[in-house]
Structures are given as structure tokens and as C-alpha cells.
Amino acid sequence: MKVLLLENIHPLAVEILEARGFEVELRTGSLSEDELVAELPGVHLLGIRSNTHLTKRVLDAAPDLLAVGCFCIGTNQVDLLAAADRGIAVFNAPYSNTRSVVELVIGEIIMLARRLAEKTERMHAGVWDKSAKGSHEIRGRTLGIVGYGNIGTQLSNLAEALGLRVIFFDTADRLAHGNARRMKTLDDLLAEADVVSLHVDGRPGNAGMFGAEEFAKMKPRSLFINAARGMVVDDVALRENILSGHIAGAALDVFPVEPKAQGDPFESVLRGLDNVILTPHVGGSTQEAQEEIGYFVAGKLAGFALEGRTELSVNLPVVQAPQLVAGHRIGFLHVNLPGVLASVNGVLADAGANVTGQYLSTRGERGYVVTDTLDPLPSDALEKLAEAEHAVWLRTWDARTS
After folding, report:
1. How far apart, in Å, are the Cα atoms of 370 and each of 242, 252, 307, 393?
2. ACT domain: which residues (predicted)?
3. From CA 119, how far away is CA 124, in angstroms rounded?
């Protein structure tokens, strides 16, 4: 089976997949929609990061595609419903780069509070500017975290260890870590925070959630950080608040429009502003994080393609089937309707199958049954399942080749 990995995914992913028998092609950049339509026929597994967008049109043009691995946290660059309709599994790495993003944010808080970006620029220009003007400690300041998930909670813990007071707002019920306080509304958080750091996901409802109105509600001379999604923030409104002095500094790692490949030109209304740190979407770009992501997602892709395992899939029913070490396995993805499992088991019984394990899960309009048997199922039984009215696909695996 052929694997295409885009956007400079860590070489460990290549090693893992090649060791499992896949033919792997690694590319450094992303592909446009037209390029994907041309490239994906014949590709069975696709690895991407945040800059490659898989639309319905792209998925329609990928008849051989079994699964997509997002070698990052977010999956909003993939049409998940269209993928599920076609039985294409999508995996991501929800935890692997958490620490790297948090360390970047902590460093940015200190750099903004001490205005270090300006200091180093002037030193490189030959200017000795030894002044405490506008420079502050972060101890005792209040950090407001918007989005209290995996990254937000770890940021909360490290920030408290540095002496920051932590408040947070999340639309979901989240357990407060340490001495962090939940705020009832985003407005309450903005009124109290000295530093606001965004850590929300890329769901469509979050687009444009932080604009002129939200900046106006922040404390005068507060700091702003966006390491979440570029489309969440109105960068023009942020620029106006930086220029007016209402916001004392900002750090952004994500942008509404980002270059597609290494070395491409970068445009932003925030370029050239004092005490504004701009980084090229490198929150998770440490060697440690990228290696862990490569290991994690490559393992999920191989587990699905070779054994039918869907644990941590973001769009198909999650079946945590054990590793296939003996016998045979049948995977049956189907429309989620009553009676399908009974009909599957009827076919197995008629075929005299010796079932050694069976695992079932449903998700939305899809159901997934994994059945392990001692011996291969006869071809007529497999054909009957594959041609069933509610079948999306039927696949089989042998422990000797998985």
C-alpha cells in the first residue's frame, strides 16, 4: 500500500510505516486542492499537517484512500463528515505536542512582559537601550486562559508554578487545576486578566470569536497571545489596539492565511509593530513533539490499515480491538441501523465461523463491527456481507500478514 506524507512530517513516521511494509513518499510542502485531486488516486494512506485541506472534492477524487493522519492537534482542515461518509478514517495527535505549545506560550509571556523582542532588535542594530521602562515581572499577574483543554490545563499548571494567578473560561465543564478559577463569562475573564491566551479549537463556531469588541473589554496595557487558530482572531482589530496602546504587546503563532511551503512570503498587518512577537506556526515544532507525533499517528494509520483498529479516530466509530496476533479478522463498516449486528452474526453462524472475539461501536450514522475468527470466512459469506444493503465496506486481515 502507498503512503503519501506531506508538510515535512518527522522521519520516524516514515521508518514506522516502511517497517510495516508500506511504500512511503515524503514531501516537504502542502498541496493545493487541484494538486491533491491529481495526486491521490493510488494513495492508500495520507499524512498531513495544518496547511493541507481535504475537501469533499478532494475525497471524491481519492478512491483508494483508506485513512488520513493529521500529524498535529487540529482536524478542521479535513471535511470529517465527507470522510466518514466514504468510510475514510481520520486520526490526529491530540496530546503529543501539548508541552511544546505550553513552553512557547510561557516564554512569550515573559518576553512580552520584559519587552525582550525590542531589546534584542536594538542590540542587533547596535543600540544600547538599558532601561526598565515598560518592563515587568510576571509574578503576581493574572493569566486568563480561554479554552481549558489539554493545552490550557497544562499551561495553567506551569503558570501557577511561576507565580501567576490563573483564571479560565471554557464553554465545556472543565475541572480547575490547582488554584485556577473558572470565570462565568468571557467578559468576566477579559476584565480581570493581565494576559489573555487563546487555546480554543478550530470548529467553525470559533471563527472570528475575538475581535474589536473583545479587545475593548481587555484591561488597558494587557498582553494578548494566540497559539490556537488564526481564524479565531481579527488581526486588523488587534493591530489597531496595539497602535493605540490599549494592548501593550501580543504574540501570535497562527494566522488567518499562512504560507503553504517553507520559504514562501508571509504577509500580515501585524508585521513591524513594537512588542509583537510573530512565529511561523511553530508551537508544536520541537524535535520532541514532532517525533512523538510521528510515532503516534503513524501507529494509528498502520493499526487501521493492517488490523482494522479505530481507537482515537475522530470521525469513525471507535473500536479498540486488540492486536491481531492469531487467526483472522473481519471489519464491517455499515450504516447505523437496528438489526445490522444480528444480520452479520447470522451470516457468521450460517458459515460455521468459530468466533474468538467481537467488538462493536457506533458513531452518528456509522456503525463498525470487528470480528475475529479462528479460520478464514468462506468467500460466499464474505460476498454476502460486502453486498449487504447497509454495508459501507468490508475488509479482512490475517494475523500472519498484519
Report:
1. 56, 44, 10, 12
2. 329-399
3. 9
| CATH topology classification for 1-97+286-316 | Rossmann fold (3.40.50)
Q: Is 136 a catalytic residue?
A: no
Catalytic residue flag (residue 44): no
Per-residue pLDDT tens digits for 351-385: 999 999 999 999 999 999 999 999 999 999 999 99
Domain 1-97+286-316 shares a fold with domain 98-278: yes
Give domain limits for the chain.
1-97+286-316, 98-278, 317-402
The topology under which CATH files domain 98-278 is Rossmann fold (3.40.50)
Q: In Å, how far are 10, 54, 76, 161, 310 from 5, measured between CA atoms?
A: 9, 14, 18, 39, 20
Instruction: Mark whether 258 is an active-site residue.
Output: yes
Q: Which residue has the cell 515598560?
A: 134
CATH code for the structural domain at 317-402? 3.30.70.260
The total of other beta-carbon atoms located within 10 Å of residue 49's CB is 22
Q: Catalytic pick from 281, 309, 328, 334? A: 281
CB 95 within 8 A of CB 288: no
Task: In whole angstroms, give the CA distance from residue 388 to residue 346.
Answer: 12
Selecting among 44, 114, 115, 229, the annotated active-site residue is 229
User: Strand, helix or coil at 239?
Assistant: helix
Per-residue pLDDT reduced to its tens digit, 159-212: 999 999 999 999 999 999 999 999 999 999 999 999 999 999 888 889 999 999
Of 190, 139, 185, 132, nearest to 162 (Cα)? 139
Position of cell 477579559? 190
User: Residues 310, 304: contact at Cβ < 8 Å?
Assistant: yes
